[in-house]
Task: structure prediction
Amino acid sequence: MLHGTLTTFRRRCGKPGCRCVGGEPHESPALTYTEDGRTKTLTLGAAEVAEVKAALARFESARADLEAQAREGVAALRARRGASK
Ligand SMILES: [Zn+2]
Result:
């Protein structure tokens, strides 16, 4: 499971004569995520992108489940108060 954002890095390598000098930067997939309040970046291999996407989807799915359970918790608490009055 992963929590972060899949992004694409564009950079110029600085080598003279490279295609990036002509305005076509190198692109590499990367994962940005937050750790201890700081945004961090992990560059990914092309083969890792699908795996990372799936892991991010698992996190979103799990988070949606947790939020639904939390709403049920509030609803249960409210219902109990309503019943005791
Ligand atoms: Zn280059």
